[in-house]
């Protein structure tokens, strides 16, 4: 319970720190440009948290069964799924999404 409260307080504290630019998931190039633009608006700690959150969301969206099957079939899954999932989100929303993913994994 204390960990949940601490996480909630951290999230609330970050609400005022984030906002601003959002991710453009329309293409790989736009995704990279928009995440770079977001990174430029954050301080070092926020950049580290945002970067970590991006990785959590990216890895959680991978269906390894499909990846292995695709490798056997000669087809690899598209990165566009991740781009679409994060399209329109700002840094705070990405971090919240990653926290939800981590919380749901802890409950399993």
TrEMBL record:
<feature type="signal peptide">
    <location>
        <begin position="1"/>
        <end position="19"/>
    </location>
</feature>
<dbReference type="Pfam" id="PF20404">
    <property type="entry name" value="DUF6694"/>
</dbReference>
<protein>
    <recommendedName>
        <fullName>Lipoprotein</fullName>
    </recommendedName>
</protein>
<dbReference type="InterPro" id="IPR046516">
    <property type="entry name" value="DUF6694"/>
</dbReference>
<keyword id="KW-0732">Signal</keyword>
